[in-house]
Amino acid sequence: MICKAHEPAVQHYYLLHYLLKYSAGWFLSFPSFEQLAKPALRAAILRHSLGDRPEAHALRSDEGFVMTTIKLHNTRTRGKEVLDPINPDDVRLYLCGPTVYDRAHLGNARPVVVFDVLYRLLREVYGPDHVSYARNFTDVDDKINATAVARKEAGAPGTLEELVQERTEETISWYLADMAELGALEPDHMPRATAYIPQMIAMIEELIAKGHAYPDGAGHVLFSVKSYKNYGALSGRSVDDMIAGARVEVADNKRDPMDFVLWKPSTDELPGWDSPWGRGRPGWHIECSAMSHELFGDSFDIHGGGNDLMFPHHENEIAQSCCAHPEGDFAKIWLHNEMLQVEGKKMSKSLGNFFTVRDLLEQGYPGEVIRFVFLQTHYRKPMDWTDKKAKEAEATLRKWRALTAGIEPAPSAAAAVIAALSDDLNTAGGVAELHKLATTGDAASLLASAQLMGLLTEELGAWAKDEEVDLSIYEKALFDARTVAMESKDFAEVDRLKSAYLEAGVEVRMSKAGVELVPGAGFDPAKLEAALKP
Ligand SMILES: [Zn+2]
């Protein structure tokens, strides 16, 4: 693709075109860039000719695409790489989606938000019509079956299969609603595993035919890990280490303890499909391999997920896909986000710090605040959710929303924000740039840049709107109560007001000069109003 650009004559032509068109603002009747080359090639040429231009705004091409080089940390090669899409007209990314048996917890939301920023950045750089993003739903799984069995035993009407379907439909709708509240755009493809069973069966047959998988004669098909010499390359572990670390289940039907299930038998009551190995259902790993192949072919650009999926899920996806389609690369770049903690501890039900996204929304944390807290930590670092961070995030967003109210966004995000995001999705750096724009009062640029990160958008703004409450009467009430109390030495009313304000989600700052009230997370105007009517 780049070879043409390396010819000096071609480079000169582009340079001349660029100089005439952008530097002096002249419009001459040169052929348009569209007639000359693809967006990525043009971007490469412009980067060469521009170096680091100090403009406030990112440079846009004729078609409005932003010129930048995106670098991403590739788990596979353990280094940052320039994203060089297989086809710049169709940049393809795949993210492992949820198993739909329950509400998404806060940790499940992190890769969704991280990948949403990447998706937005790619759309900005390659154009919204030139990016394909797929995130699957695993809607066949033992955990889903278990919820249906439990409901059946509790007397729910319907067959097990109907109860499974009810559960998956309900969970998918919850998931989409919750992720939308975090400002995540819906992917272009949201394949459900159960809609791709024929493709999975075909892929398993292919693996058996090529000697990479074997049926056990009792309804299972297993992948032979020893048949794939690069197994473990992604996570950088040897097969022996993996066996030692992963408490691999040793079973009679496995030729090797590391072999994993591609297909397993199903009972008559549970969801199942006819296959050459009897009625059954797919293993989890084969789903992503089959769905990504159906949607994106043998090779695509980026595959992502939490780093808890690296082994065994992603190793198994690679083994299956590369053995079934050895002519392709499967995914070129692998992105993995680090895990999420709550107040410095691993989130767990036993510690009582386990939150679903819905829990937090119901506690009054706006989705935009959750997103903003997430983006303050780089995706490759552990992210610590704390109440303090959420309160600060809420105050910042409130300030920025006030600053940008009624303002038109700039034509493009600030160059510094795009540069930060293009450097391995440095969202923390991007947020630092947003603070700078707010400090200098460049509201139009702040708005455009924040919106590129999915913040300060119209859709996420409802929480900040209905809370434009005049706080001065509440400040005066507390100030007056304190003046009276200084005389009477009876501070009961002062204490009552203070705790009522705190209860309404308002921080109380008292000094000699006066009282300042600052709405924080979970601010409830109705409760505040009630505070004055004991
Ligand atoms: Zn997957």
Question: Which characteristics define this entry?
Answer:
single chain, 534 residues, globular, Rossmann fold, 20 helices, 4 domains, binds zinc ion, disordered N terminus, Cys-tRNA/MSH_ligase, alpha/beta, four-stranded parallel sheet, four-stranded antiparallel sheet
Question: Could you characterize what this model shows?
Answer:
- About 40% of the residues are buried.
- The chain is about 45% helix and about 15% strand.
- Helix 9 (about 285-295) crosses helix 10 (about 310-325) and helix 18 runs antiparallel to helix 19.
- The N and C termini lie far apart (about 75 Å).
- The chain has four domains: about 5-70, no CATH class; about 90-340, Rossmann fold, CATH 3.40.50; about 365-465, no CATH class; about 470-530, no CATH class.
- The chain has 20 helices and 15 strands.
- The strands form five sheets. The chain has a four-stranded parallel β-sheet, with helices on both faces. A four-stranded antiparallel β-sheet has the order 5-6-7-8.
- The chain has about 525 residues and is α/β, with parallel strands linked by helices.
- The site of zinc ion has 4 residues, from helix 10.
